[in-house]
Design brief:
Elements: H1 10-30, E1 35-40, E2 50-54, H2 67-84, E3 91-94, H3 97-119, E4 123-124, H4 130-140, E5 146-151, E6 158-163
Parallel strand pairs: 2-3
Antiparallel strand pairs: 1-2, 4-6, 5-6
Helix pairs in contact: 1-2, 3-4
């Protein structure tokens, strides 16, 4: 694990050390040939530290639609929370997957919004995780031509993108 300058804040240093230790131990216990690196520390762009994992086996950590990666992130934050006494809100990424996924969802949302605005018909998207739905809602929140709404429950929860004039 290599640490990039995280600033003078001692709490930030404790968080980075705790999360790094937990993440490296989990990777080791899993037998994954990969290395974690601090990409962004606390306070930069808000939120907790962002760690990137690179290595020969790192792709195994993503899983289907990022499920394994989300589980790893949950475990790291859960264990670090026990050690620190507060949730570090660390983000774990593998080879830039999170950023690529975010951009892909934002592009998809923009394309769907154009189709909805042109056709005047609502489009229901595939079921998504809460995090992915949030990204889509945020991507379209400033678009006055469409509105978004989550429907369904559990793993089947979807977003409906509708023309804005339907709800007026």
């Amino acid at each position: 694990m290599s640490i990039v300058d995280f600033g003078p804040d001692e709490v930030a240093g404790d968080v980075v050390k705790a999360v790094s230790h937990v993440l490296d131990n989990l990777l080791s216990q899993m037998g994954v040939d990969a290395v974690s690196t601090l990409r962004r520390s606390i306070g930069e762009e808000g939120g907790g530290p962002v760690f990137n994992i690179e290595g020969e086996d790192s792709g195994l950590l993503i899983g289907r639609q990022g499920e394994t990666l989300r589980s790893l992130q949950f475990l790291v934050n859960f264990i670090a929370n026990i050690q620190l006494g507060f949730r570090p809100n660390a983000i774990i990424d593998v080879g830039g997957y999170q950023e690529r996924r975010k951009k892909s969802l934002q592009n998809m949302a923009r394309n769907v919004s154009l189709t909805v605005a042109q056709s005047g018909r609502s489009i229901t998207l595939e079921p998504m995780t809460a995090y992915d739905r949030r990204l889509v809602h945020l991507a379209l929140s400033d678009n006055p031509e469409v509105v978004t709404q989550s429907v369904g429950s559990g793993a089947d929860r979807q977003i409906v993108v509708s023309p804005a004039d339907i709800d007026e």
